[in-house]
From TrEMBL:
GO terms for cellular component: plasma membrane. The chain crosses the membrane at residues 35-58. This is PspC domain-containing protein. The keyword Cell wall biogenesis/degradation does not apply. Keywords: Cell membrane, Membrane, Transmembrane, Transmembrane helix. InterPro entries: Phageshock_PspC_N (IPR007168), PspC (IPR052027). Pfam families: PspC (PF04024). PANTHER family: PHAGE SHOCK PROTEIN C (PTHR33885). Residues 4-60 form the Phage shock protein PspC N-terminal domain. The lineage of its organism: Bacteria, Bacillati, Bacillota, Clostridia, Eubacteriales.
Length: 65
């Protein structure tokens, strides 16, 4: 069994592909993840900081390059 890995999705991205990659990892709609980031962004700005860190830390999917 192959391990499931978290990657940024460059084919279905709005900014950096973080939300789309998280949605692929958890098998949910990317819109729900994007809405969650927006809500976190309005709650003290923690969503924006988390998104920036995630875009740096999460690698791009090598199959999509």
């Amino acid at each position: 069994m192959e391990r499931k890995r978290l990657y940024r999705n460059v084919n279905d991205k709005m900014l950096c592909g973080v939300c789309s990659g998280l949605a692929d990892y958890f098998n949910i709609d990317p819109t729900l993840v994007r809405l969650a980031w927006v809500v976190l962004g309005f709650m003290g700005g923690s969503g924006l900081l988390a998104y920036i860190i995630a875009s740096i830390v999460i690698p791009v999917n090598p199959d999509q390059q």
